[in-house]
Give the backbone structure.
Amino acid sequence: MTVKVDMKALFEAGAHFGHKTSRWHPKMAPYIHSRKNGAHIINLEKTVEGFEKALPKITELVKSGKKVLFVDTQKQSKDLTKAAAESVNMPYVTERWVGGTLTNVETVNRQIKKLKDLERRMESGELKNRYNKLEVQRFQEEIDLLNNRYGGIKEMSEQPAALIVLDAAEDKNAIKEAITLKIPVIAICDTNVNPEGIDYVIPGNDNSIKAIELYLNYFTEAIKEAKK
C-alpha cells in the first residue's frame, strides 16, 4: 500500500474529537483515548490502524474491477462525498438512503430504468413534441426527483463490492442492508456509534469538514492506486 496515513494530519483536522461523554456507545471503548472537557478523545493510533486495514481492501477490490459505494447523507459533507466519488467514477448515495437500495434491487432497478427512459425521451425532444409545457415541466420534476434518489447509483450495474460510509450513525440503515447481504462495510465511527457488524471500523470525528475531506482523500487515493 502506497497511501500513507498521517496521524499528524488527522490530529490537525480534528479527527480525534469525539462526542460528549453522555452520548457515547460503550462498544467504542477500545477506540477511545481519554476524556477532555466532557467529551471523549479518539485514539488516533486506532484511526491509523483502521485506515491501514481498510485502504488495501479498497485497492484490492477496485483492482479486480469491482465498484465501492460511497454513502454520506450528512448535510455538511454530502457534496464533498459526491464530488469525491465522481472523481474516481464510483457510485454514491448522498441525499437519502432509500430503504431497499441494496436488498430490494428489483424495485430499485425498475425506478432507475424509468429514470433513464424519461431522460432519454427528454433529451431526444420526444416529450416536448408530444406534451404541453406544463406536462413537460412535470416530467422534468419527476426526473429531478428520481435523480435525487437514484442518480448516484443509476450506472451501478451490479451489487457493490463494499460500502464506504462517512457517518455510521447517520447511515445505519445502509449498513444494516450491507450486513444482511454480507457486503463488507468500511465506516467512520464516532464515539456514539455501535460498531458491531462493521468489517472495517475507522474511529474518527464524523462532523469536522476538514476531517471528512482528509478521510475522502485517503479513500480516493486508494482507488486511484488500484486504477494505475
Summary: Residues 169 and 193 are 6 Å apart (CA to CA). The first strand starts at residue 17 and ends at 20. Strands lie at 17-20, 32-36, 39-42, 68-71, 92-93, 162-165, 185-189, 200-203. DSSP finds eight helices and eight strands in the chain.
